Amino acid sequence: MTPQEMETRIVRYGDLVPCKTAFIDAHTPGSDQKENFTIIGGGVSESPDQHVHIKDTPGFNIGAAGQPPKCRNSLHSHRTAEVFFVLKGRWRFFWGRWGTAGEVVLEEGDIFNIPTGIFRGFENIGTDYGMIMAILGGDDAGGGVIWAPQVIEDARDHGLVLGENGKLYDSKKGETLPDGVGPMPLLSEAELAGFPETPVEEVVRDYVARYWDLMALSGKKPAKVIGTDALLRDRPGFEVEFLSRDSIAPSAYALDRHEILMVMRGHWRLTWDGGAATLAPGDTCAVPPGLTHTLAPAMTGEASLYRVTNTADAAGPTWTG
């Protein structure tokens, strides 16, 4: 593989293309300044304006959300896994029918495997622009977003209507629902009763891993973060590992699976037969199956990254036990 070919598989943080109209709350005060990024796969964006950096998916999607201070993402749910780690800033995640069932604050490097099937939202509670990176289960990321009814009603009051086809229509631009397409129906009370109000103690215990704990666990080998035998036991269709300076492979290796490298801290040198590339914080690299390569920090100082690989598990509900 030539360096030019590999560069098409690397999405640089500085090259990320945002979309400010990705979701139904794009005009709702308090949520109207957020930016959505689709890095690998189309994600769950509801806007035709969304730019997709790498269209082919490895069994899951990679995306990101960028928000200024006090900006929030409205309550929604997914049918497959949604995993976030904080790249920049300080974030509050909250969940439940009205967002009051519980909350947890994540610092830079922390990771949150949000339980499938609960309403969740998040906001930047830091003092600067923040960024969280996302992993969504499934090639089609579960077919879209399920919004809490009040989110759909608030959006309609501010000019955005979500069609039952999953597409957004902006009345401020003169757009209307096409003939034969109705608005997305609101969930009934019976349907809403099926969304759990997961206790905060359970969420913090089973679904959250802290950056400095992972640094300690990755002293001699990669720390298993998400997987059947990992710190956060789950089978969402992918596995997540955490690598630090001391846990890298001592020699060249190749995997029979897709390997997605998401740099958290430091610069990392990726070398293969045919070239080399340096990955910086916020960069995402899709290493193809079967490629023999080495991975090592490129300079002194703190170095860490998350590695995501696909598995044969169905991209279904979050599983623990």
Please write out the topology.
Elements: H1 3-7, E1 10-11, E2 35-40, E3 52-54, E4 60-67, E5 72-77, E6 82-88, E7 91-95, E8 102-106, E9 111-114, E10 120-124, E11 130-137, E12 146-147, H2 149-157, E13 160-162, E14 168-170, H3 189-192, H4 200-207, E15 208-209, H5 211-217, E16 223-227, E17 232-233, E18 238-244, E19 259-265, E20 268-272, E21 275-279, E22 284-287, E23 293-297, E24 304-310
Parallel strand pairs: 2-3, 16-17
Antiparallel strand pairs: 1-22, 2-4, 4-11, 5-10, 5-12, 6-9, 6-11, 7-8, 7-10, 9-15, 13-14, 16-18, 18-24, 19-22, 19-24, 20-21, 20-23
Task: Walk me through this protein's architecture.
InterPro entries: AraC-bd, Cupin_2, GPI/OXD, RmlC-like_jellyroll, RmlC_Cupin_sf. GO terms for molecular function: DNA binding; metal ion binding. Residues 256-302 form the AraC-type arabinose-binding/dimerisation domain. Keywords: DNA-binding, Metal-binding. Pfam families: AraC_binding, Cupin_2. With 321 residues, the protein is mainly beta. The chain folds into two domains: 14-208, Jelly Rolls (Sandwich); 210-310, Jelly Rolls (Sandwich). The protein contains five helices and 24 strands. It has a seven-stranded mixed β-sheet. It is globular and about 60 Å long. The protein starts with a helix and ends in an 11-residue tail after the last strand. The model has no long low-confidence stretch (mean pLDDT 93).
